[in-house]
Amino acid sequence: MPKVERTEIFDVDINSFYEVITDYESYPSFVDGVSEIVVVKKTKTKAEVEFIINLIKKFSYSLDIKQKEGSQISWTLIKGDIFKKNTGGWMLKDMKEKGTKVTYHLEVEFKGFAPQVVVNKLVANNLPAMMKAYYQRAKALEKGKG
Q1: Coil, strand or helix: which one is 61?
Q2: Which of 33, 66, 81, 117 could form a disulfide with 55, with the two C-beta atoms 3.0–4.6 Å apart?
Q3: 7 pairs with which residues across the strands?
Q4: Residue-level pLDDT at 117
Q5: For residue 32, how far is the Cα from the chain centroid?
Q6: How large is the angle between the packed helices 14-21 and 127-145, nearest 10 degrees?
Q7: Spatial distance between the Cα atoms of 146 and 88, rounded to a whole number of angstroms
Q8: Three-class SS of residue 126?
Q9: How confident is the model at residue 123, as a pLDDT?
Q10: Is 106 helix (H, G, I), strand (E, B) or coil?
Q11: What pLDDT score does 124 carry?
Q12: Domain boundaries, the chain
């Protein structure tokens, strides 16, 4: 069962980063492999979101997302084409003038056999680039507000 965690400190405001990670509708414009997002329902503290992904193979899954304004989101799998389990989240900590400490964690389990190349691409190899994409989006958001 692949499990991954990564922590970085980004020179962006915690609220800007939180805004980016909860703006699910915009993921296709900056997250590699996300081809479509369907927000089934969303409140300030919860969301149900369907992700349509195209990495080597096209697949979809729906997540039940819990949001704690300005500090974290976590999710569990509702249903999916290839996942038996998909749990994870973002934890944000305000580091004041240093920026935001961002920790991303993910644990997935696949239905049936999943080639190791697919597992690595989905879970570990894309993580640094994916986190950088969120950071760049948050940085651009801050510049737009300035």
Answers
A1: strand
A2: 33
A3: 103
A4: 66
A5: 11
A6: 120
A7: 32
A8: coil
A9: 62
A10: strand
A11: 64
A12: 3-145
Given 3.30.428.10, 3.30.530.20, 3.30.930.10, 3.40.720.10, which CATH number is that of 3-145? 3.30.530.20
| Residue 146: predicted pLDDT | 59
Contact (Cβ atoms closer than 8 angstroms) between residue 100 and residue 2 = no
Q: What is the pLDDT along the chain (146 residues), one digit of tens a residue?
A: 458 889 999 999 999 999 999 999 999 999 988 999 999 999 999 999 999 998 778 899 999 999 999 999 999 999 999 889 999 999 999 998 899 999 999 988 888 776 666 666 666 667 888 899 999 999 999 988 75
The answer for 8, left when phi > 0, alpha when psi is -120 to 50, beta otherwise, is: beta
> Which residues are CB-contacts of 92 (< 8 A; sequence separation ≥ 6)?
14, 17, 18, 70, 71, 72, 100, 101, 102, 103
* Both tokens assigned to 43: 């409140």
Of 24, 37, 34, 9, the closest CA to residue 122 belongs to 34
